[in-house]
Structures are given as structure tokens and as C-alpha cells.
Amino acid sequence: MAKQYNQSKAFLAIAKASLLAILKNPGAIFFSLVFPLVFVWIFGSFGSNGITKYKVAITPGSDTLNAIYTVLSNLPVIEIKNYTNDSLRKQDLEKGRLAGVLSINTRFDSLKNKSYSIEVTSTNASMPEVMMLMNVLENVSAKVYPNPNNPVLISKNIYQVREYKQIDFVLPGQIGFSILFSTLFGIAFTFYNLREQLVLKRFYASPVNRLSILTAIGVSRLFFQLLNVVVLIVVGKLFLGFTLAHGFITFIEMVGMSFLMLLTLMGVGLIFSSIVKSDSTIPLLINLFALPQMLLSGTFFSISLFPEWMQTLCKLLPLTHFNLAMRKISFEGVSIFDCWQNIGVIGLWAVGIYFIVYKIFRWE
């Protein structure tokens, strides 16, 4: 009588072999486990301080020795920023970086009765924050003087500045996002395929200068990506009301910043194309590099949502400085030369990246 085949053992053997194949695939582990964990960690860090803080400044000459100021300065929802430069304080106020500027004064009537006045100066750029700030001030006033004859007078002065629309935040981030992934995928796969098909080797054996070969291929990618940047800016301006503070000059400066970022990311693509053994590894490396950039650089939301230590980490990333510079240039009207700190960080990344490219780039 023929021995019956053990279906259970066959099932377990196949399941084991399949599981081992999955575990040996780094891409599967990354996208099924690491990728979601990173998302959970980053989005879980939103508002990790547990409260929303309102940034305010105090005008010079304000009375900071009274009970109102003492209670206000100890509130966890209030962050008082000190300025030595009046124009810088006004600049931050008009850009929506401050909820308001407070002027606190103590007064005495003819009977020597003490009263206080708090004037809040703000702009339409901070309307949601200033309304909440007024509520906080009223609560502080009621806490310090709970009697009906409250001696605290609170007033606000809101003046109009250039409207800061959602598109003014979103579009620079989307330009950075587009540059990041399209450049990395385009350069990495292009040079990997050219190397695998021995095209680069043939180029290398030709009389053409090696730098000319790399530059020519790179320029074609740069031109295509810059064309995408131009289209995004034009569409944003014409159809979505995107702000170009100084018109065509701002447009040119934004394209210039994009060119610098493209050059930097092109080097990263060259590194990936040189170190991989198969094209299936390229997406994994790209996501390892690009995922932190995408989530921690202020592309989709402000990095101010993160705790302080995490914001420090964000400021190490080149895309963070690209996004900051693009928003300064487009909405605030800052010259590209005034963004030298942001450009410097991106430049340092570029130097380090191309040093690695010089050391590891392979023609075959």
C-alpha cells in the first residue's frame, strides 16, 4: 500500500521557505515594518509637549513688575520672545511668527487707585492665534483680580499685512518634494542602466572628457526638472494665487535655489547608482534617504509642531533649508543672497556628497 503524502509537512515547509524569502528581502521589511513605524513616530511627535504655545513679545518700557506679567510669563501656553531690534520684532509680527506684541502699562487715578492696560498689537497674518491670546489674557486678568471691579483693560490693535495663503506654504514644499523624488529616481536609475548596459564604459573609452560625459547627462536631467519647477510656479501664480513678492525677480531666484538643490540631489543619485548590485535595491536606498527629508523638512507641515530636540534634527536636513529659503524668497521677498545660511547648509551637503561621488563612482 502506497504511503500517504503528508500534506501538513508540505504546507509547513512551503510556508517556512516563503517566510525566509520575505525576511531576506530588505525592501519588504522596510516598507511593511520600518516605514509605518517611522510614520507613527513622526506623526506621534506632533504636539508632544501637550499644549499649544503662543509666541508674544513685550514692548520696551512695559511694566513687567506687576502681578499680571508675573502670571502671564509663567503660563505654559505663553512663550515670551525678547528682541533687541524693533524692526526684527515688527518683521516677525508681520510674518505671523508672533501672535502679538503686548504693551503692559500701570496707571493711577486721582485717588491713587491702580489700574492696568494691556494693548495687543497684531496682524491679520496671526488672526487665529491672536483671538486665542485675547482669551488667555482675559483669563489671567480674572485670575489675578477675581472681583467685579477688575482694574485690567485689555484692547487689541489689528492691522492688515500681505495675506498669507495656504498655497504660499504648500507650493514651495511641493517643489521640494518633486525635486527630491524625481531627481533621485531619475539619476539613480539612469546611471545604473547606463552602467549595466556598458554605455558608460564605452563613453569612458572614447576621447570625450569624463566630466563632459557626466555633465551632459546631468544637464539633461536638470533641464527637465527645472522645467517642472517653472510649470509648478507658473500654475501656482496664475491659478492658485501664489505670492511672488517681487514678481519676475522672485521667480528667477526660486529657480536658482531649485538649481542648487537639484545639483545636490543629483550627487545622491550618482552615489546610489554606484553602490547597488541590482536595480531593485535603488528604491529602498532612495526611501531611506528621502523619507526623513519628506516628513521632517517642513514639506507638508511646519516643523514647529515637533519638540525642540526634533526641530534641531530637522534643521540638519538640506530639504529643510531649501523649503525655508523658498518660502522666504517667495512670500517675504527676501533676496536669495540673504538666505546665505540656508544656502551654506545645502552647499556643505553638496561638498560632502560630491566628495563621496568622486571616491566611489564606477563606470562599469
In a nutshell, what does this entry contain?
62% of the residues lie in helices and 10% in strands. With 364 residues, it is of the alpha/beta class. It folds into two domains: 54-159; 166-360, no CATH class.
Structure description:
- The structure is a single chain.
- The chain has 364 residues and is of the alpha/beta class.
- The protein has helices at residues 7-23, 26-44, 67-73, 86-94, 127-144, 166-196, 199-205, 210-240, 248-275, 282-296, 308-314, 318-332, 340-360, and strands at 54-58, 78-81, 100-108, 114-123, 152-159.
- The protein has two domains: 54-159; 166-360, no CATH class.
- It is built from 13 helices and five strands.
- β4 (114-123), α5 (127-144) and β5 form a beta-alpha-beta unit.
- The N and C termini lie far apart (61 Å).
Low-confidence sequence ranges: none
Characterize the biggest β-sheet: 5 strands, mixed
What count of helical segments does DSSP give?
A: 13
- Multimerization state: single chain
Cα gyration radius (Å): 28 Å
The strand order across the widest sheet is 2-1-3-4-5
Cα end-to-end separation: 61 Å
Q: What letter string, H or E per element, gives the SSE order?
A: HHEHEHEEHEHHHHHHHH
Gross geometry: elongated
| Overall number of strands | 5
Question: Strand pairing plus helix content: what structural class?
Answer: alpha/beta
Strand content: 5-15%
Q: Please give the share of residues in helix.
A: 55-70%
Tally of distinct domains:
2
- Give the averaged pLDDT, no decimals: 83
